[in-house]
Amino acid sequence: MKxxxxxxxxxxxxxxxxxxxxxxxxFVFAESRRQINNQTAREFKKKLDPRIKSVGVFVNADISDxxxxxxAGVIDVAQLHGEExxxxxxxLKGIPVIKTILPGGDCNSVINADYFLFDSGAxxxxxxxxxxxxKVPKPFFLAGGINLDNIHEAVKVNSYCIDLSGxxxxxxxxxxxxxxxxxxxxxxxxxxxxxxxxx
Length: 199
Prior knowledge:
This protein is α/β, with parallel strands linked by helices. It has helices at 11-20, 38-47, 63-71, 86-90, 151-155, 176-186, 193-198; strands at residues 2-5, 24-28, 53-58, 77-80, 97-101, 115-118, 140-142, 161-164, 169-170, 173-174. Helix content is 28%, strand content 20%.
């Protein structure tokens, strides 16, 4: 089980993830309260443990911007949250792409993405009916309202990667202890309350 901590935007966030070592972190370039600019992302990447892949989060961005950030080594993966289609993704050939699929969305129209990401909306922070996730021929990320209260259930969905942002925060900022606990749960290092009772 992989884990992604999305929306890192304070310098201390990089210290937290370097300590916990999730598989991915998200740099949000789209409009958001967690949005960072290219220079900040470049500085974060320099500090980021090389074992952690950086994911650039975009919404209908100019393709040249994504190519520039990838070519400069600022991002390792592009995550697309907008109306990007097959032809758009085709132009990003050579760059690993995660494409967000909303409930009821058509996976076939963006089948050339490397990964899918199932979410209730673009950073909505709300859960959705995970039982309705279709069977897809690509590994997928699971996002949307996942936190310490429901992460044990989220892990059972058998996704490729659990993706959290707000669920790793307290009062709108990343929380070191939450990040550490989340990573340990996804790695199977911490039991759920039910599992602890069974023991």
